[in-house]
Design a protein that fits this description.
About 0% of the residues lie in helices and about 50% in strands. The chain has no helices and 50 strands. Strand 7 and strand 8 (about 115-120) form a beta hairpin.
Length: about 625
């Protein structure tokens, strides 16, 4: 499930959401869909759903009593709809929600400028600001840590991608050398994907950003432009690009294999709407007759259009296990559907006026919008599932340590219901495919196996067992690193809940002290004639360099006259690892003029390689002999 903006396409006439009827023999999925549940409104006439999380909370928008303006809401089974209010303007629209129920969206402030907001039940509606002045900000996604991404105008003109969280505020992610960029999605590891113009603004490329590598250009497959739209928890990315010759295709990317062209519909790809935990991509496109076609695509299964008997079909979201939801239409009424490769598609129960699905969570619960009481009144709805029992895995982290044989980290695998017969769950522990990947064999132990849940003679079954591996110690200061633990298909009638988690190895080694560079004062006799005198001026580090560092040294200025009293110059001074002290030479020219002592300025600037300036200014005294 991608907690990103759900795709809602309002069509002309009776259609609620653009779509087309998936065909073939309906096949049962892992959960039985119960009846459609009307979520109501905030007191007005209409409402619509946008996102759903694994707790079954739903975000959407509705008009309050006596108003035609839309307010964002969050719904849950206990409290019903909560009006999230506005930032001082007339409306608010949610775009995404995380697993904790924190909602992000956009709302105008009193001046009319559109700002991004974050809402939770403790802090209420919070304006996360802009880059300044009359700029606007639009969020696109939020992860479970509460980090928000999106795009904001920059100085009122260009658009730049941003990241926001409560501790760090709004951070400009920059560009790939061009004038504009935008962030589209973020995973729980903090990796961000989006688009950016390149130098000269000649094209847009897709990017992946993390706190270690910054914004990394992942290309456009030689085409004229690309945007990365979605990313899953193991760093697999999907989006769309424009190949040379026209049209729009889906691309798929990971760190190991780079960017792959997955193909297109019979016309062009309009939107990539989600990516599962195993890398299956959902979306839709249009053909030459403006008929919409939903699809599922991945590097293994290729590009598959979802069959339809009508002119419109939109695939709006995909769950972690690969269930696609969307809307089929173009005939009498629209229908919400669920589709899985290998099991086909089925329609969700709906009323006589039609409905469309926009989001699905990992338990199979679906959110959408339906016409109720006629074609002019739409309400947010959900389809509650009677789910099959599930097996799920929880994430964990471990501090790496500095010595010994290594530390054990355990991952809880839990059955939602006790087993009545033996249930087996295969698992694997492998390296990540992102920039923070730990190395198997030297930083953690990769392994695979099977967990077994078996009732005792008395009928008792443990519902939680543990997968364990070893994390090896080191004393090197580095960023936190990750690896992946993944469950395979369980037996015994169980389905998968959360099936893949990213484990984190927490670095506990202190960062090396940042070396500071300083210049020392010196003196020299000028001499009366003959050989020029040469002074040594010492440039020192307060600690030996651990990597190559550098500083620019300028000899010039002071009361002495360059070329007459001394030789002026500028040079780059480099310290190799282990070095901490170097001398520069300053030449003083002889003369017989009666004069006082004179001075030459020694200035340090532009430290490189992590070096900082200590004492950046020193004086060489030229001592007169007359």
């Amino acid at each position: 499930m991608q907690l990103r903006p759900a795709v809602i396409i309002v069509s002309i006439g009776a259609s609620l959401l653009a779509g087309a009827l998936p065909m073939g023999a309906p096949a049962a999925t892992a959960a039985t869909i119960a009846a459609q549940v009307d979520l109501g409104t905030l007191g007005g006439t209409g409402s619509a759903a946008v996102a759903i999380n694994d707790a079954g909370q739903i975000a959407g928008y509705s008009n309050p009593t006596g108003s035609t303006d839309q307010h964002a809401f969050r719904w849950d089974a206990t409290n019903g709809m909560t009006d999230l209010g506005t930032l001082g303007g007339t409306y608010s629209i949610p775009v995404a929600m995380n697993g904790a129920g924190t909602v992000v969206g956009r709302s105008p402030i009193a001046t009319g400028a559109s700002h991004a907001f974050v809402w939770d039940s403790t802090s209420g509606l919070v304006d996360i600001g802009t880059f300044g002045g009359a700029d606007t900000a639009t969020p696109t996604a939020i992860n479970d840590a509460g980090a928000v991404v999106g795009a904001s105008t920059y100085s009122g003109t260009a658009t730049h991608a941003f990241r926001w969280d409560a501790s760090g505020g709004l951070v400009d992610l920059g560009t790939l050398g061009g004038s504009g960029s935008g962030a589209m999605d973020i995973n729980d590891a903090g990796q961000i994907v989006g688009w950016s113009s390149i130098a000269g603004d000649t094209a847009t490329h897709a990017f992946v950003w993390d706190s270690t590598s910054g914004m990394v250009d992942i290309g456009a497959l030689g085409g004229t432009g690309a945007v990365a739209t979605v990313i899953n928890e193991i760093g697999q990315v999907a989006g769309k690009f424009a190949p040379v010759g026209g049209g729009t295709h889906v691309f798929w990317w990971d760190l190991a294999g780079g960017m792959i062209d997955l193909g297109t519909t019979s016309g062009y790809v309009s939107e990539v709407t989600g990516i599962s935990s195993t890398g299956e991509v959902s979306g839709f496109g249009f053909d030459a007759f403006t008929q919409a076609h939903g699809f599922v695509a991945d590097p293994t299964g290729g590009f598959t259009e979802i069959d339809a008997d009508g002119p419109l079909l939109v695939a709006s979201d995909i769950s972690g296990s690969g269930q696609v939801v969307g809307t089929s239409g173009g005939n009498d009424v629209d229908h919400a559907f669920v589709f899985e490769r290998g099991t086909g598609a089925r329609l969700l129960p709906t009323g006589p006026f039609g409905a469309g699905a926009v989001a699905i969570n990992d338990s199979g619960q679906v959110a959408g919008t339906a016409f109720v009481g006629g074609f002019l009144t739409a309400h947010a709805v959900t389809w509650i599932t009677a789910a099959a029992p599930t097996a799920a895995i929880a994430s964990a982290s471990v501090v790496e340590g500095d010595g010994g044989a290594g530390r054990t980290v355990q991952f809880a695998v839990t059955l939602s219901d006790p087993a009545t017969t033996e249930v087996t769950v295969p698992y694997s522990i492998t390296a990540s495919v992102n920039q923070a990947a730990a190395t198997s064999g030297s930083e953690f132990r990769a392994k695979s196996g099977t967990i077994r849940f078996k009732p005792t003679a008395s009928g008792f079954t443990a519902t939680t067992k543990y997968v364990a591996t070893i994390v090896y110690p080191d004393a090197t200061e580095e960023s936190d690193e990750t690896f992946v633990v993944k469950l395979g298909a369980p037996t015994g009638g169980y389905s998968l809940g959360t099936s893949i988690v990213t484990a984190r190895i927490l670095d506990d080694d202190p960062a090396p002290a940042t070396p500071a560079v300083s210049a020392a004062d010196a003196g020299i006799w000028e001499g009366d004639s003959g050989t020029k005198n040469t002074a040594k001026v010492w440039i020192t580090l307060n600690a030996a360099a651990t990597t190559t560092v550098s500083v620019t040294v300028t000899v010039g200025g002071g009361s002495a006259t360059a070329t007459t009293d001394y030789k002026a110059y500028t040079k780059l001074l480099t310290f190799a690892p282990g070095q901490y002290k170097k001398a520069i030479a300053v030449i003083a020219y002889p003369d017989t003029v009666v004069e006082g002592d004179e001075t030459v300025d020694i200035t340090l600037s532009s430290p490189g390689g992590g070096l900082v300036l200590g004492r950046a200014n020193a004086t060489l005294s030229i001592l007169g002999e007359e």
